[in-house]
Amino acid sequence: MRVLVAEDERDLADLVAEGLRRHAMAVDVAYDGTAAVERLVVNDYDVLVLDRDLPGVHGDVVCRDLVENGARTRILMLTAAASVSERVAGLGLGADDYLPKPFDYGELVARVQALGRRSHTPSPPVLRRGGITLDPRRVQAFRDGRFLRLSLKEFAVLEVLMRANGTVVSAETLLEKAWDEHADPFTTAVRVVMSRLRTKLGDPPCIETVKGAGYRL
């Protein structure tokens, strides 16, 4: 899952980003509204964690423009204002969810994961396919009951493949969904992670390479 955290409190933004990465998410950070808009134009995010009171371009404007442009990115709005009227106003702008500060971190993660499941075709909290069980909330994966000791990147790649429901996923899409903006598109990162993942999944092989197109689970 690819997430953008737009928050001007740098320490909070970095803590939120690092925590989401521990749940195998690819996370970029913007410290003001202008930077958030620039990243949203370039990258296809599943979820935007958006502070409402951003400097530069206000969070309300970021939210409204994203919705009006028909983006599929789901929006979790954060704000220090916790009144009902403020929540109603935020949701009225098109935000999918609303979380007042201070917030419980576990709740934030759960809400981001829930929104991520809705960013494409709705999918269940625990994914199952071909004997593989993947639980994003616990960051755990099993094959035929055997626990898979996956790195966070291997877990993220497997999650993208499972959410594709048997369709081919290109290397470019994997880079977009499982790596952040610092990934080099000309590296062999996808191929290396895919090789390790295949080894850990074991036999019979379950990841197919579709020549010139990508990978399919």
UniProtKB/TrEMBL annotation:
Where the record annotates domain Response regulatory, the positions are: 2-116
Q: Where is the OmpR/PhoB-type domain?
A: 124-217
Q: Which PROSITE patterns match?
A: OMPR_PHOB, RESPONSE_REGULATORY
Checking CDD domains in the record gives: trans_reg_C
Question: One MF term in GO for this entry?
Answer: phosphorelay response regulator activity
Entries under Pfam families matching the protein? Response_reg, Trans_reg_C
Q: Is Cytoplasm one of the keywords UniProt gives this record? A: no
Lineage: superkingdom: Bacteria
Which sequence positions fall in the DNA-binding region? 124-217
Q: What is this protein called?
A: Transcriptional regulatory protein TcrA
Q: Which organism is it from?
A: Actinomadura rubteroloni
